[in-house]
Amino acid sequence: MAAYSVAEAKNTLPRLLDKAIEGEKVIITRHGKPVAEIRSLPTTNWDERRARMV
After folding, report:
1. E-strand spans in 1-54?
2. Left (φ > 0), alpha (ψ -120 to 50) or beta: where does 7 sit?
């Protein structure tokens, strides 16, 4: 598990997304406290993804 500040995450979001896709747990912190997690979504088909967006 890797933790990144909001500023780091803002500047390196594409790299953090790649890490999440590879299965790594990515935690975003604010003032040193965890506030969010980036993780990849399970593989789904187009209809399932579209249903989530509605």
Report:
1. 2-5, 26-30, 33-38
2. alpha
Q: Is 45 helix (H, G, I), strand (E, B) or coil?
A: coil
pLDDT 10s digits, 26-35: 999 999 999 9
What pTM value is reported for the model?
0.71
CA distance 52 to 11: 28
pLDDT tens-digit readout, 30-50: 999 999 999 988 776 777 767
Closest by alpha carbon to 23, among 38, 5, 4, 33?
38
